[in-house]
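Section 5.1 Outputs to date
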Amino acid sequence: MSICLSICIPTKGRLEILKNTLDSIYSDYEGNYDEFEVVISDNSTDELLPQMLNAYKQHPNIVYEKTNVEGFLNSINALKMGKGLFLKLHNDYTILKKGALAEIISFVKTEAEKKPLIFFSNYERRRNDIARYDSFDSFIYDLSFLNTWSTGFAIWKEDFNVYSKMDLNEVFPHTSLFLFQHEKRSFVINDILLFNNYEVNKKGGYNLFNAFAVQYLSMVEDCLKKNQITQHTFNHIKQDLFKNFLVVWYYNTKVAINQYTFDLSGIKASIKVYYSELCYYQMIILAYKRAFLKNAKKRFFALLK
């Protein structure tokens, strides 16, 4: 029987978190194990993961590879390892909900004939439905900057074999693959809640604001220049990113107490590439407003006790 689904997991040194993810995959599924595989691309500097995987020897559909591929390109290596009809990128800290694996496999089989471009938004759009589009522009408009989310990314194996040979952004290689598929005839956003993300300490390791405010928006702007999306869609993504990502992450990394390890240098310069200097100061004000409202809410509920 051919493999329907490859769950492709890039990982580095998160043994206990990965164990929880693997347990969520295997503890619930009652279907045919030949229908899916779990591929793990490990770019850690130790040999601890192979030892941990000894506990999963009863699952012959786990495929492991040690690699020296660095950073986010490890995601591409994980996808490259997959032999299934459909490749689902999966963060090592993403826990499948009960019944989710069977639901994903069933969904893939339903879509296999037309092979649309699919993104799993996991209820981030608060729709809990499956939305279908015949326009790349309207698809991108509704999805907005969520298309940067690696756990939402998936691609048909035959499409990966074509587009993975192209020049990929090193921070957003999966988003490059996603945007390359603008010529597809059909597009799907699956907003059904299928997984939960485990909170990871000391997350980071790259320049957060340069990545999103500069590199990501330049990728979207390139779509605009090639007439793959409209100016209306570009403006929508740009404003949505500012309000619902840049402000939020300025608060998370610069205002709130945190353990993130992002490179936070050159924030103002990054913001000024696609936004005005005024927007930079607006971002700071809105981040502190967010902090004030959070503290006020805590004080209010404390008074009610």
